[in-house]
Design brief:
The structure is a single chain. The protein is α/β, with parallel strands linked by helices and 252 residues long. The protein has helices at residues 6-14, 105-117, 134-147, 179-186, 209-216, 238-247; strands at residues 71-76, 120-124, 165-171, 194-201, 222-223, 227-230. It has one domain (35-56, 68-247): Flavodoxin domain (Rossmann fold, 3-Layer(aba) Sandwich), CATH 3.40.50.360. Helix 4 links the parallel strand 3 (165-171) and strand 4 (194-201). Helix 2 (105-117) crosses helix 6. The relative contact order is 0.20.
Length: 252
């Protein structure tokens, strides 16, 4: 499919609710790419997974069931889906560089969720990485949305049937889910599962993310109240995440 004319993309960036920040204008990435890299370290006491390794819920023979083992925390972040040749060249204060360095915001929220409820972490990673150049990544995200594309994934979850609660995190890209998240959703049987979305965004908020996620899931999937975290506030959002988890009234 033809690429969107740069003139149209430029116009979109100027709209009051321009995409890429779910509505951010000016400095906010038009793909609403979620990540703020001012604090590139994962929360203490948490270990983010190697994105190249598949998640498995298998436990050693004879091991008793442990708290949170039926929970999966899957997330998509630009930081795990691009290659930065020279990390020292990244301007950590530039909004357009958000999410280039790990961990991205979605990964940070995922780590806080795991810290609170247990479970397994899974990073959704595409086979063909996105460009680390802001404009090129923006163009590809726009094209994938227009094409309703399903980018192939390099990471997969083993034994998805063993999980009955799935926290699913992602940024608001062009007012909706990143297309690789839909690839992930369509790869598994979600019947009877409980899905708990967490979204990072610019001023556009959740936009159509939850509506489009709901449409992609079976009718018997329970979708709980999502949390949306404004990108500039992620650094101070751990308490808000804990309050949100408490309000879900789930038995972990």
């Amino acid at each position: 499919m033809k690429r969107w004319p740069s003139l149209v993309l430029s116009a979109l960036l100027l709209l009051p609710l321009a995409a890429c920040g779910g509505g951010d204008t000016g400095s906010a990435p038009p793909v609403d790419s979620e990540e703020n890299i001012h604090t590139p370290q994962a929360p203490s006491g948490t270990n983010l997974p190697d994105p190249s390794e598949p998640v498995s819920s298998q436990e050693p023979a004879g091991q008793e069931e442990t708290e949170g083992e039926h929970i999966l925390i899957a997330y998509f972040t630009w930081a795990d889906n691009t290659v930065v040749e020279d990390p020292s060249s990244v301007d950590v204060d530039a909004t357009t560089s958000a999410s280039l360095l790990a961990p991205g915001n979605a990964a940070r929220l995922a780590a806080w969720i795991q810290e609170a409820v247990g479970g397994d972490l899974h990073s959704i990673v595409v086979e063909e990485p996105y460009s680390s150049d802001y404009d090129e990544c923006l163009d590809r995200a726009a094209e994938e949305k227009v094409d309703n594309a399903r980018p192939a994934l390099a990471t997969h979850v083993e034994n998805m049937a063993d999980y009955d609660i799935v926290f699913l995190g992602f940024p608001n890209w062009w007012y909706t889910l990143p297309m690789p998240v839909l690839t992930f959703v369509e790869e598994y049987d979600w019947s009877g599962k409980t899905v708990v979305p967490f979204v990072t965004h610019g001023t556009g908020g959740l936009s159509s993310t939850i509506r489009d996620l709901t449409a992609a899931l079976p009718e018997d999937t329970a979708i709980l109240e999502p949390i949306g975290v404004y990108r500039p506030e992620v650094d101070e959002s751990q308490a808000a995440v804990q309050d949100w988890l408490a309000g879900l009234n789930l038995e972990f």
